[in-house]
Amino acid sequence: MAAIGVHLGCTSACVAVYKDGRAGVVANDAGDRVTPAVVAYSENEEIVGLAAKQSRIRNISNTVMKVKQILGRSQKCGPWTWLLSNYP
Fold it and tell me: Is residue 74 situated within a structural domain?
């Protein structure tokens, strides 16, 4: 029997598989075991992971990151106001 574990962090995500008494973290298409939790949109495509993180300066208005930090917060000022004011 196999088990799958998913880690959805504030800034990254990864997947691990436990099978036959051994655990292993699954590598993404770039060979990395941790993927940045970033999604970017353009007119023609959706970009995820490292490519989206690297393009966030050129495409900041269409890039989604740090979503977990605003979940459950009050919407008095809107989620983007809080997110942008706390972006390093």
Answer: no
